[in-house]
Specification:
With 325 residues, this protein is an alpha/beta fold. The chain is built from 12 helices and 15 strands. Helix 4 packs across helix 5 and helix 4 packs across helix 11.
């Protein structure tokens, strides 16, 4: 089979190589899956660079989220067991953690449902306890993680403010359903949020960016507001001033979704049921901006790493002739 392999750490476009390799052999409690679609996540790029908390042994195949097909023909969602990741024709995954792919979504959409939407659901509902009528601010609202939070926020009855970088991403955020869109390249984010909320600020802030975005969050969070720290796509990890949290009476909530797989796996199943129901009635639908063939996987991971994509970029091995669809 063909698979992208990383033999040394560095930028994805430089260290990912498409190679002919043997099909992986499932270990105890694992299953072999035919990869129907593999969603690209920012951690895939971090793993190539050696900057992620999970460091698989070299060589490894990146790709932490797939829609796959079991040997008996079932369509499932899975997080492949590294080093046999999803940017390949076949991957392996833990049998106990497989989830049924929603019928309402095609392969690429289903591949993009699991991590981003689970993270959003846990962040907004489990951690921040978002309520209908509250104001939700989403940083990087047109990105893969942000777009999921926007849709989930709207489905929960919140007023959603999306912060993006650039006119193209602003247009995407509006299409996603943001009530207010702020272009950080041309607008003062703090002033715009205060204007949009009548000076009150946002009740819940969803931040996968860190850095300057986090600083802005502390200045526009409402009384008894909650800042959900999801990641640091900016590359800068902020150091929160706890005296500021005390004086303004807001909460800083960390979210490492992956921990629920070992700490409380039943919640992941419950969340998937909620997401499936939302997808079935059309309340959420992963924004897949690009479907690329397996041969385009390395370049696509680099684009996600560079922050130049909107929504989700998904590798679909069945695409032929090297042309995106």
């Amino acid at each position: 089979m063909q698979a992208w392999q990383v033999h040394q750490l560095g930028e994805p476009s430089e260290v990912m190589r498409l190679q002919d390799v043997e099909r992986p052999v499932p270990g105890e409690g694992q299953v072999l899956l035919k990869v129907l679609a593999a969603n690209i996540n920012f951690p895939d790029a971090l793993m190539c660079r050696g900057h992620y908390q999970v460091r698989p042994p070299l060589p490894f195949t990146p790709g932490v989220e797939i829609c796959g097909e079991t040997e008996d023909g079932r369509r499932v969602l899975a997080n492949p067991a590294l080093p046999y990741g999803g940017f390949a024709e076949y991957a392996v995954a833990d049998a106990a953690a497989l989830l049924p792919a929603p019928d309402a979504l095609d392969d690429a959409e289903a591949a993009a449902l699991h991590i981003g939407y689970q993270t959003g659901w846990f962040g907004l509902h489990r951690r921040a306890r978002l309520e209908a009528g509250e104001t939700l601010l989403v940083h990087a609202a047109a990105g893969g993680v942000g777009s999921a939070a926007v849709q989930l926020g709207k489905a929960a009855g919140a007023t959603v403010i999306g912060v993006v970088g650039g006119a193209d991403k602003a247009a995407v955020a509006r299409e996603l359903g943001c009530d207010v869109v702020i272009d950080r390249r041309t607008q003062d984010v703090i002033a715009a949020v205060k204007e949009a909320t009548g000076g009150r600020g946002a009740d819940v802030i969803y931040d996968p960016v860190g850095g300057e975005a986090y600083t802005q969050s502390t200045k526009v969070v409402a009384f008894e507001g909650r800042i959900v720290v999801v990641g640091f796509a900016s590359g800068s990890i902020p150091s929160p001033a706890l005296n500021h949290a005390l004086v303004k009476n807001y909460a800083i909530l960390g979210l490492h979704w992956g921990l629920y797989g070992t700490k409380n796996p039943k919640l992941i199943q419950h969340c998937h049921e909620q997401l499936t129901e939302l997808a079935t009635r059309g309340a959420i639908k992963p924004l897949v901006s690009e479907r690329v063939p397996l041969s385009g996987g390395g370049a696509a991971v680099q684009r996600v790493a560079d922050g130049v994509t909107t929504g989700r970029v998904v590798v679909v091995p069945s695409l032929e002739n090297g042309a995106a669809a």
